[in-house]
Amino acid sequence: MKKRTLFILIALAAFSLALAMPAPAKPRLMLLATGGTIAGAQASVKDVGYKAGTFRVEDLISAVPQLKDLADLAGEQVVNIPSQDMNNDVWLKLAQRVNAVLARADIDGVIITHGTDTLEETAYFLSLVVKSDKPVVMVGSMRPATAISAEGPANLYNAVAVAGHAGARGRGVLVVLNDEIHFAREVVKQNSTQLDTFKSPNRGRAGVVNTGAVHFFDTPTFVHTAASEFSVEGVTTLPCVEIVYAHANLGRDFIDCAVAKGAQGLVLAGVGDGNCTEPALAAFRDAITHGVVVVRSSRTGSGLVVRNVEINDDAMGTVAAMELNPQKARVLLMLALMKTSRAKDIQEKFCRY
Fold first, then answer.
1. Which domains does the chain have, with CATH numbers?
2. What is the pTM of this model?
């Protein structure tokens, strides 16, 4: 009897102590909204078309009341546009705002809502210019907010869970959709409509997240965020870089036009291992003689474009994009051109970033 009484007293004491202990502090996060499908609305649920960027950040937060269980979450509308209209000016504005928010002692991480069409480009850009180890998580959706079975709320819930997870710190910019976590450098949109459109074809996913439970698989191997040499502090414009898409019978006209219009860099979305027709190669050679930096990438969607395979980069003066697809090669080339126009130095950056 005495043992039973003692057990009850110990249990009551432990229960009282647990009640007296403060609850663990929730992470303090900022949601920066830029529009996109996740904030889109249809005129009717039967409509395939919709208007992106219809709802504001307050609407997105209020649509998922469970977010308050994960974090102390504040919101801010940076822009409200479809991501096909994303541009250099918005990139600079967004990057500078992310850096300002993450510099605050009362903020532990940032979530960014974004349209899926150019999400991978914005994510990679931010991964090169954000100056913090704090988590930055980008999220979108393939269905508008008014669609039947819209996945935006679940994606947002998972994104907040990832941004608030201790393991997200130091991994660079992450992308969360469809219960998957991807590194900004690796992720690619590969399907125009499917929910599982985002893949990391070369190096695989960073992890998975399901109903807020986060599991990381790997850490990034390339330089990013706080360790990056690139900065947009005080920057108001980015160098002009255009992409030339290779195809059968490609001529030189578009290349010559881009050079005449003042392009400082050109990215070849080449066939196979970053190749193209002889007339186009001749135009690229001429562009290089005029000081334009040319990067060879591939239109295939995955794999490496390494130096001196099919094209003699040493002789021609071109840069090999390595694993970067054309749209991400453009991002890195823009930032590299802010530091140097020497192809050799830019090639080194393509191997590091």
1. 28-227 (3.40.50.1170), 241-352 (3.40.50.40)
2. 0.92
Q: Which of 37, 113, 116, 225 is catalytic?
A: 37
Tokens 């910019």 -> residue: 173
Phi, psi at residue 339, to the nearest 5°? -115, -35
Active-site residue 37, yes or no? Answer: yes
Band of pLDDT at residue 2, cut at 50, 70 and 90: low
3-state secondary structure the chain: CHHHHHHHHHHHHHHHHHHHCCCCCCCEEEEEEEECHHHCECCCCCCCCCECCCCCHHHHHHCCCCHHHHCEEEEEEEEEECHHHCCHHHHHHHHHHHHHHHCCCCCCEEEEECCCCCHHHHHHHHHHHCCCCCCEEEECCCCCCCCCCCCHHHHHHHHHHHHCCHHHCCCCEEEEECCEEEECCCCEECCCCCCCCEECCCCCCCEEEECCEEEECCCCCCCCHHHCCCCCCCCCCCCCEEEEECCCCCCCHHHHHHHHCCCCEEEEEEECCCECCHHHHHHHHHHHHCCCEEEEEECCCCCCECCCCCCCHHHHCCEECECCCHHHHHHHHHHHHCCCCCHHHHHHHHHHC
Confidence of residue 18 (pLDDT cuts 50, 70, 90): very low
Identity at 61, one-letter amino acid code: I
